[in-house]
Amino acid sequence: MTTTVTREGTPAGVRRPAPRPGLRDRLSRWDVKASPYLYVAPFFIVFGIVGLFPLLYTAYVSLFHWDAGDDNPDFIGLDNFKELFADAQFWHSLENTVSIFLLSSVPQLIIAVLLAALLSTRLRGATGWRVGILLPYAASLVALGIIFANLFGPKYGLVNGLLQTIGLSPVDWQANRFASHVAIAIMVNWRWTGYNALIVLAAMQAIPKELHEAALIDGAGTVRRFRHVTLPLLKPTLIFVTITSTIGGLQIFTEPKLFDAMPGSNNGGSTHQFQTVTLYLYQTAFENFDLGYASAIAWVLFLIIVVIAGVNYLLTGRLARTPRRKG
Amino acid sequence: MTTFRKGLATALGITMTALAVAACGGGGDSSSDIPAAAGPNEHIELTLATFTEFGYEALIPEYERLHPNIKITHRKTGQGGPYAQDMMTKLAAGSGLADVQAVEEGHLSDILSKSSKFYDLTQIGPADASPDRWLSWKYDAGKDKNGKLIGYGTDIGPDAMCYRKDLFAAAGLPTDPEAVKSIFATWDSYFAAGAQYVQKTGGKAWFDSAAQNFNAMVNQLPVGYLDKDDKLTVESNQGIKDAWAKVTDAVGKGESAKLTAFSNEWNSGFRQSAFATKVCPAWMLGVVKEQAGPDNAGKWAVTDAFPGGGGNWGGSYLTVPTQSKHPREAAALTAWLTAPEQQLKAFQAKGTFPSQVKALESPELLSQTDAYFGGAKIGELFVAQAKKVAKPQYKGPNDGQIQENVTAPALQAVEQGKSPADGWQQLVDGAKKLAR
């Protein structure tokens, strides 16, 4: 590109001792230097608008006592964060979030891997099964939330009805903190297990057949091959799935919001027994309109997600270690 | 060359979009100067934002016919909660509100504390919209602390008591609307009858939810959660303490069906005959009919007695935000929509109970009966209840949030087994946190 442009810029035969570059010439040199940046610019500009700017602006807002509609919010420095760290409701909601996250993600990923293993065996109508497990994901989240909240109704819910017919005592899925977490985790698992299973399945199908064949010749059974061939090679996929479900799990919002008996409530139950951090954040920002405090919550949640995703990455890496030491 | 230009154009385009997006967030607040009224031939477009059912569908074309230069766009939202959030966000953003913005009573306190963002209707409203048009308590509740009138009242929700005749009969209680009045005379007599009912029926619930009764009781007090200086009164307010003691005592005696109002379980509770009495503001009759269904027709009754006198629950106001470009025209529309004649039409359309003295005197309203409630003269009954309402209680900022997000959950916690003392502490702590 440079050569063509230079040739155009200096017509043959006209050679001057000190050629002053013309406008065209200078522009074309700029073109070479600037164009690459401009080509990649759209991504960075869009990221700047929808990603970086909100992130930084949230950090800025978190330094104020900012009530929605305030004309002159008070600058209070790090007071929001100080208050947040002493806020029992925040820690309570964080505990809820982690509890719901663990109750959903751990069984979800284990079941997803097992489901994927089942689906990768030779089945009649394989596509049908694969589409089938993705169906819950295709359904509307809000509709699912409302249906599940009904199923887990403490008085007239179907689940308690079933429990009573088999002679067990009904569970108050709303009032009991652990029971409410279980109910919400079931909601989450119902939706996401199939989705994760399909991702894992895709990775399983990509494992070269030769490896399995070689293991088979070496006399490895199904379980052994699964543990020593399949699982290690799934490592990158498992890391990906774990991190995405961590991010999703720590931001869980719709399910607990819809699980509350009171329509439209962000309270997460009578004593916040299933109020998650995002629900608390939402309540602070859009129900109490305390934008500064809500921004502080958002930033702390962001940092927690970064840390937990990092820990996850290390742990998953260790669990599914690549067995190619010997080379 | 061309690539450079293209790149530059793209970059510029994106930057412009970014600036445009950023500009939307800004939006300055207009000054308190009131724009002049438009000339009679100037074409004006007004927007009107309401939620659920106001019964304005037929009124809007009528107004446009009367004022050929005005075109009205009606923005209707389904639910009150999301509507209020949307309104507060637009109020904070400084743009996006309609010329006429409806505000529900429960969210009025948040608006009144930001009264600088609304026009004073006594300044821009037409002369015929004088205070004597409304019930005085409804009119006064639309004023901020300094007496600035933010909203014209639309409908109201005077309280009465609904009860199940068949369940009363089964428990040996009187069933005639006149005979039950003594049961509903005071909260003490009401809860005492409830305790009796629980005993005689072997543990059946007397009312639907503790929070529903508690809200009605607190609304009757001269001072609510906040006093006129916006100071939290909860810990020192004897009326609130007494109400708490009475309601939680009733919960302890098994009088509550422990259902969260408006939840699915509550809806099922109506069909399952889970409770015998229900606090019934005028608009609740429709809810009862809808949820209890035709199978229970004739079993429900309503009487013009309410423990502790009268009370009001619900009803809305129409406001004109300073964001409006045509405030005088918006105020004129607001005054027209809240005039007695129009309120009667709205009542006929959607059952919104009028708050205007003349409308309450109209034979159309007074002769209204309801077959579902055994042919009760509900028009006359609720007019009588509306007149029993005392002067309005001052509601400070966050009043609605305290009621919905602190009190109701605290009472629910007591219904779920928390001790009344712990529940009270939850209420006090929660209210303090919100009021800080």
TrEMBL record, chain A:
User: Which domain of life does this protein belong to?
Assistant: Bacteria
Disordered: annotated span: 1-22
Q: Does the keyword Nucleotide-binding apply?
A: no
> Do you know which Pfam families this protein is assigned to?
BPD_transp_1
**Where located?**
Cell membrane
Which membrane topology describes this protein? Multi-pass membrane protein
- Output the Gene Ontology cellular-component terms: plasma membrane
Classify the main location: membrane
Q: Which family does it belong to?
A: Belongs to the binding-protein-dependent transport system permease family.
Q: What is this protein called?
A: Sugar ABC transporter permease
Q: What is the protein's species of origin?
A: Amycolatopsis carbonis
From TrEMBL, chain B:
Top-level taxon of origin: Bacteria
InterPro entries per UniProt = Bact_solute-bd_prot1, SBP
Query: What Gene3D superfamilies does the record tag this protein with?
Result: Periplasmic binding protein-like II (3.40.190.10)
> Which PROSITE patterns does the record associate with it?
PROKAR_LIPOPROTEIN
Q: Which UniProt keywords apply?
A: Signal
Q: Which residues form a coiled coil?
A: none
**Signal sequence region:** 1-22
One Pfam family this sequence matches: SBP_bac_8
Task: Please give the residue ranges the record annotates as the region Disordered.
Answer: 393-429
The protein here is known as ABC transporter substrate-binding protein
Annotated source species: Amycolatopsis carbonis
